[in-house]
């Protein structure tokens, strides 16, 4: 198993001025982990994991900057969708338990 910590952030200093949490933690600045295990590839960030392709694995390691058409931005959005799906599933379970 191989893994590499990835520091994900906005692409340029110019874009950072639009980041509302520039002085602290940010939705656009976090640590991810690129994982290779037995020929399969995964990406973990913000508490969610995804199975990814070999080229996504290579690209996120080479360029973890968020900008249009970057692999980092595509994975960022996939992680956000996975977290939203998890949150809505948990909420649905909570509603079922209350009835």
Observed structural traits:
99 residues; alpha+beta; 5-stranded mixed β-sheet; globular
- Counting helices, strands and paired strands, the structural category is alpha+beta
Distance between the termini: 44 Å
Q: What would the average pLDDT be, to the nearest integer?
A: 85
Number of discrete helical segments: 3
Radius of gyration: 16 Å
Helix content: 40-55%
| Major sheet: arrangement of strands | 4-3-2-1-5
Structure write-up:
With 99 residues, the protein is α+β, with helices and mostly antiparallel strands. The chain has one domain. It has three helices and five strands; from the N terminus they run βαβββαβα. It has helices at 13-16, 54-62, 71-98; strands spanning 2-10, 30-37, 40-45, 48-52, 65-66. It has a five-stranded mixed beta sheet. β2 and β3 form a beta hairpin. The longest helix is centred in the last third of the chain and has 28 residues, at 71-98. The protein starts with a strand and ends with a helix. The model has no long low-confidence stretch (mean pLDDT 85).
């Amino acid at each position: 198993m191989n893994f590499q910590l990835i520091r994900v952030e906005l692409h340029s200093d110019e874009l950072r001025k639009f980041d509302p949490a520039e002085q602290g933690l940010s939705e656009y600045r976090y640590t991810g982990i690129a994982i290779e295990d037995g020929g399969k590839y995964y990406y973990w960030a913000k508490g969610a994991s995804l199975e990814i392709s070999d080229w996504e694995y290579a690209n996120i390691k080479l360029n973890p900057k968020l900008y249009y058409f970057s692999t980092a931005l595509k994975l960022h959005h996939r992680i956000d969708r996975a977290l939203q799906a998890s949150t809505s599933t948990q909420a649905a379970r909570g509603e079922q338990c209350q009835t």
